[in-house]
Specification:
The protein is 0% helix and 53% strand. By secondary structure, it is mostly beta strands. Strand 5 (46-51) and strand 6 (58-60) form a beta hairpin. It is globular and about 40 Å long.
Length: 118
């Protein structure tokens, strides 16, 4: 089994910054990209950002481009999400995820709450 643990969520004013961290442990062989997703109240879970195994390739949802930066310790199972210029619409539970051998996000953390006040 694979375990993912997120940290770094909290309450921040609009325009502020937060940094989320996630560490994976357990049977992490044959795993690939890591990513962040979020789910706001009453909404479906949505993709936020992803990073390749090497950390050399990143991809983002349009809504966060230019404000969020995903990074990963190369060849390791830690991923980070630097969130700048936060907006109230960024309020959500943020989930860390890891791709398994299927190249789908098969493994998920428990989530960390991010609340942005206006």
């Amino acid at each position: 089994q694979v375990q993912l643990v997120e940290s770094g969520g909290g309450l921040v004013q609009a325009g502020g910054s937060l940094r989320l961290s996630c560490a994976a442990s357990g049977r992490t062989s044959s795993t690939y990209d890591m990513g962040w997703f979020r789910q706001a109240p009453g909404e479906e879970r949505e993709f936020v950002a992803g990073v390749s195994w090497s950390g050399g390739s990143n991809y983002y949802a349009d809504s966060v481009k230019g404000r969020f930066t995903i990074s990963r310790d190369s060849g390791k199972y830690s991923v980070y999400l630097q969130m700048n210029n936060l907006k109230p619409e960024d309020t959500a539970i943020y989930y860390c995820a890891l791709q398994g051998a299927t190249r789908r996000y098969d493994y998920w953390g428990q989530g960390t709450q991010v609340t942005v006040s206006s």
